[in-house]
Design goal:
CATH class of the largest domain: Mainly Alpha
Helix content: 40-55%
Strand order of the largest sheet: 2-1-3-4
CATH topology of the largest domain: Glutathione S-transferase Yfyf (Class Pi), Chain A, domain 2
Shape: globular
Distance between the termini: 55 Å
Largest sheet: 4 strands, mixed
Oligomer: single chain
Length: about 230
Amino acid sequence: MSRPTITAFDWVPPFAQGQVRDLRVRWALEETGQPYDVHYLGQGAQKEAEHRARQPFGQVPTYEEEGLTLFESGAIVQHIAERYGKLLPDDPAARARAIEWMYAALNSVEPSIMDLSFVTVFERDKPWSEMRRPAVEERIHSRLTDLSKRLGDKTWLDGDTFTAGDLLMVTVLRILIGQGYVETYPNLTAYMHRGIDRPAFQKALADQMAGFTGEPPEWYAAWAEKQKQGEQA
């Protein structure tokens, strides 16, 4: 098998470090024991034609291997699981449930969490942000309540076996780590930490953090100052 190459940023703001979605792909590759290479992009390069040929929306990660180019972290994680024979059970029913949880993480749980990032970071200066926040938080707790009930006292979402569904769900929950949302649910907190305590996750996270060696773009200083002033207001 050839050695795959993924794309990642060489710089993101501090609040995003450790959260960029190439982490999910790195974790899947570490769980399967598959070495890989990283093509780092400076800020702005993701919007240029060369990268858009890999990723039409100008985002990361992408995955390239033996003439195959993929984008979207969920699709890449599923491909890795299928190609390298780990992270998806052999039993057809259990395999289908693991894939179901992959979709649930990305389509049912993550959207409301990302809405929170807009009202608290990206659009915090908009007049509607503060008004939207209670509804966003209510949706987050609604999803977490449902997830907590379904997880119950199980180790992983479908029992005792860690799957690609757990990998994606843990990375989604981890977006909220330390903010008091997941921590409201003891079983979800324990579940999330079981995932991030796995050696493969710790290796993936360390490698992502080590890759942030680039310089911030010109706009960042003014943006950061504006955010700081907003916090002090």
